[in-house]
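Quick question, first post here. What does this chain look like in 3D?
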Amino acid sequence: MKRIILLGLAGTALAGEYAVLDTGFRLSADRAERDGAIVRLFVGGGLIEIPAQSVVRLEKEEAIEAPAPAPASGPTPPARPTPRELIEKAARRHGLPVELLDSIAAVESGYNPNAVSPKGAIGLMQLMPATAAKLNADPADPAQSVDAAARHLRELLERYDYGLYRALAAYNAGAGAVDRHGWVPPYRETQLYVQRVAERFERLRRRQAKSSD
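> Answer (accepted):
Ran it through. Tokens below.
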């Protein structure tokens, strides 16, 4: 099985390379090389081959050092991280665009960690109990919900060769439905969901690109 190294692990020094795909995703590797129409990523003892046309650029990873311990703050409990902070952390950890994970949270729950859908989906990322159980996460806990959703989304993206529409459809309707139809299932709810998330994702990416100019 092909293996992907996750990016952004706190306290870990990273000194390899990563490929930036045209979809905005990053794939980390010990070493990367171009060979004509193929880009090869060497990961541990494995090898991942990607069409060169899908790779925007190859970049060196910078070493990430563990943050210094925070000073003692007395009996006052630390402030809870905001949904945005949780989303940014999980996106970095799992090599996802922050704007994509943010768009899913916005469409799924409106950033409401207490949301419960009529079908039983729970929490900030609206995980079904069975899905949350497979991911060993409490869907009502915002931090666990976001991290589990990021892991789940990354698995779906890898399953569908980084096809965003199919991955989003599988997040909403289940991978079985996508596999049966070979594409976004003909369910109005799922089609609207994919459209809303994809449009918001693209809008946020354009806004981010303009702010970086």
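DSSP finds seven helices and six strands in the chain.
The chain has two domains: 1-65, 83-198.
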